[in-house]
User: Fold this.
Amino acid sequence: MSGPRRTPSGGRGQRTRRRASRGPSVVGRRHEVEVGPIAHGGHCVARVPVDDGTDGRGRVVFVRHALPGERVVVELTEGTEGDRFWRGDAVEVLVASPDRVTPPCEYAGPGLCGGCDLQHVDLGAQRRLKAAVVAEQLRRLAGLDVDVVVEEVPGEPDAPPGLRWRTRQRYVPLPDGRRGLRVHRSHEVVEVDDCLIARPDAREPGTGGDGSAVLETVRGRELGVAADGFWQVHPGAPEALLATVLDVLRPQQGDTVLDLYAGVGLFAAFLAEAVGPVGWVTAVEGDATAAALAAENLPGVGVLTGDVAAVLAGPDAPSRVDLVVLDPPRTGAKREVCEAIAARSPRAVAYVACDPAALARDVATFAGLGYTLTSLRAFDLFPMTHHVECVALLEPAAPN
Assistant:
């Protein structure tokens, strides 16, 4: 293939998230801008002067492929004249940041593959930017000032730093056996010969379609996982997250533990070992296949299947516990689950979060329920992208 090629798939290349029109489209217009701070979502904030009778600060533009402090030409990719904000790509860099590098992947850049947000950024600077996002979300949504450091997690020993870490990769099938990845917020597909963040032997979720399980090994223990089910895609992630959860919770013999959104039982398996035969672990998982595998993976652990909030409101969940692991989806745990946890008076909650905004909202909810954030670690489990994983420890607030 001579270069990246774009192909329509399931549509005509239009952006996937439509809003009601508020005037003429601004797509395709270009502006020279000073790039401001990083924002949650893999873009930076800039402002375009507009004559709209506002405060004169200009229209907010969320700019991809830029870095704070740069001066760039942004081409608008979404928006109408009446929108509160626009989206755009930095298509020309006039003054570059010292943290800018040449992307290692030929498919990374404006209008190309949308999978990686930060290939144009030095790897250490990527982690500093992610730390800034986590800190900003906690400050804005939870009212907390937290020093955040995003830690490197070892991947494949012989792989270039930041590359070849994805053990699973889903492609868009194209004619004649070709494959591709989608453009950011678009139906269009970029044909891809080789995704540099994927391992050469990366498994494509759902291949086979027979519902069979594969085995994943952590600390010498095998856990069955559905071929199309959830498992961390970074090879170092299970150990990094497990070690951190055990370290912050400090389980003791005889403790009772709730593992919520437990998946196939990564945390429950080792918590059960830590609390011993006189302790008890209950795992709650909404996906029936994952829950069934958890039951096979976790002899001696109670596994409850169903919506976490509904299970916690029902008669089968323990009414009091010593410890909780909370590993919700990207949308977060939300108030009903937070209230059900606090009502059980655990001495510690380990919150594993893949979205800093959802984490911050739930931390604020827990604060109103008498629990405070006492420690936070963040891990770079998704190099070259804006994603970051956190483990937060929540404990009962000290009495005034």
Summary: Residues 136-168+199-396 form a domain with the Rossmann fold fold (CATH 3.40.50.150). The first strand starts at residue 6 and ends at 7.
